[in-house]
Amino acid sequence: MVFANLDGADPPGDGAILRLDFNPPEERVPGFEIIDLATLHERRRRRRRRPDLVHRVDFHTLTLITEGSGEHAIDFVTYPCRPGTLLWVRPGQVQSFVRPGTANGTHLLFTPAFPPHSSSADRLVNEWYGSACWQLGASPTYAVLSTLLGQLRAEYGRPKQAVSAEILQLLLATVLLQVDRLPKDGGGSDPYAGGEVYARFRAELERSYATTRRAADYAHRLGYTVKTLTRACTAATGQPVKHVIDARVALEGRRLLAHTDEPVATIARRLGFPEPTNFGKFFTRHVGETPGSFRQTHRGQQ
Fold it and tell me: What is the pTM assigned to this prediction?
């Protein structure tokens, strides 16, 4: 299964957050797998791995909880899991099964390249940001998603030579489009309101946040003006472009401080701050506490 790397791997020795590739031991369908959440936890227990190991993945996971309860953390937010909970973890996000508990359900894993490129679902999987959790309860949406996931499982469970990757792709696209209809979190922000400008900017930001925090650099690389980027960011998030850039850098700083043993000076250099004192001022301004205080608080919670 996909998480075999997690079961068999120890945290990296360079202080970085453990990052997992999509690499199932038996690749029935390239770029796709669907299993029970309980199966994941059982395999990890057999290998005596911590159930709450912090890690990133380079693929998407969609989990629909159907029974039991537990807790799952995604980028510093802990979500209660109960029947009707839907979780979407995107590539690069930091996650942990804080308290697996008795939660079970359908666990869907797929690479960004797997959905059909002709579908608008392709846009959804290329975004690294977005809502992470919905509490659907026993709503009609839960019934629709449960039925679609059941169809995915049925197709995936066919004899290997009979499984249709195209059917799986189209069913997955339908699942993603149904999820896209769900309410967005983020205080009313709408990433689609910024149009293509905002989408291109976020992609470039994800590539370059550790090398530049200057709005003018992003505008130059994308062929826009700073004013155009600000309009797009304000439409999508309610915040100007510089705030969006700084928020992304601050998020990575929080991740590295909370989940690695790297010295603050090393983290500062990773994020493009030659002087640790400048990183300290930046972090305190945007997070509300010093890097050392933030690290101590979150280490005490682990």
Answer: 0.83
261, 262, 265, 271 alpha-carbon torsion, rounded to 10°: -120
Taking 3-state DSSP, the helix, strand and coil percentages for the chain, each rounded to the nearest 5, stand at: 45, 15, 35
Query: Angle CA(209)–CA(211)–CA(212) in degrees, nearest 5?
Result: 70
d(CA 148, CA 61): 15
| Residue 264 DSSP SS3 | helix
- Integer Cα distance of 144 and 220 in angstroms: 44
Buried b (16+ CB within 10 A) or exposed e, 275-297: ebeebbebbeeebeeebeebbee
Tokens of 5: 């790397």
At 1, is the secondary structure helix, strand, or coil?
Answer: coil
pLDDT digits (tens, 9 = 90+) for 185-224: 654 456 667 788 998 999 999 999 999 999 999 999 999 9
DSSP 234-271: HHHHSS-HHHHHHHHHHHHHHHHHHH----HHHHHHHT
Enumerate the β-bridge partners of residue 108.
34, 62
Q: Which tens digit of pLDDT belongs to each residue from 252-284?
A: 999 999 999 999 999 999 999 999 999 999 999
Asked whether the beta carbons of 157 and 151 are under 8 A apart, the reply is no
User: DSSP class of residue 193?
Assistant: G
Q: Tell me the mean pLDDT in the region 16-33.
A: 83
Alpha carbons 253 and 283: distance in angstroms, whole number: 8
Which of 100 and 103 is assigned the larger pLDDT? 103
Residue whose entry in the numeric block shows the structure tokens 């202080």:
15
Across the chain, how many H-helices and E-strands are there?
Answer: 12, 10
d(CA 51, CA 97): 6
Q: Which residue has the tokens 């960004």?
A: 112
